[in-house]
Amino acid sequence: MVIVPKPDALTRPYWDAARAGRLVAQRCNVCSRIWHPPLPSCPACGAQSIVWIPLSGNGVIYSHTIIHHAAHAAVADRTPYLVALVTLDEGPRLVSNILDCPMRAVRIGMRVAVTFQEIAPDIFLPQFRPLEAGVRS
Ligand code: ZN
User: For the segment 117-135, what is each residue's pLDDT rounded down to a tens digit?
Assistant: First the structure.
């Protein structure tokens, strides 16, 4: 069982970009703050003048944890699994899976790059994989 995101008016540009293999985030036209997840107004200054911008897709693992006890039936058959907090080079942080890397090799500070996995028809989930050669499984 997979939990499938349901794009709405606020998040559709994010999911449309992911389907096209691009990672995007919102940026405030007033104070230039960049954030994720999508919001209807700037979390720093409250402005509603917002633009979607392309991101590099590169970042660093800020933190991670291994989940042993599933909190939802949808992931009960996946334990143990690793969840990481990735700080993108542009600043926003995303909660993500780390692909192509054994859990024991995941490290805080590890450079990662976005990759997109089709988890349902037309739904591509941005996730990350190590940039360094040699740590991939
Ligand atoms: Zn702002």
Answer: 999 999 999 999 999 866 6
Compute, in angstroms, the gap from residue 32 CA to the centroid of ligand 1.
Answer: 6
Give the chain's mean pLDDT.
Answer: 94
Q: Are residues 62 and 117 in the same domain?
A: yes
Question: How many structural domains comprise the chain?
Answer: 2
**In angstroms, what is the span from residue 121 Cα to ligand 1's centroid?**
35
pLDDT digits (tens, 9 = 90+) for 54-75: 999 999 999 999 999 988 888 8
**Coil/strand/helix, residue 18:** helix
Cα–Cα distances (Å) from 118 to 21, 54, 127, in that order, read 10, 20, 11
Q: What span, in angstroms and rounded, lies between the C-alpha atoms of 81 and 2?
A: 14
Domain that holds residue 127: 56-137
Say if 3 falls within a structural domain.
no
Q: Does some domain include residue 38?
A: yes
Whether residue 80 is found in the same domain as residue 123: yes
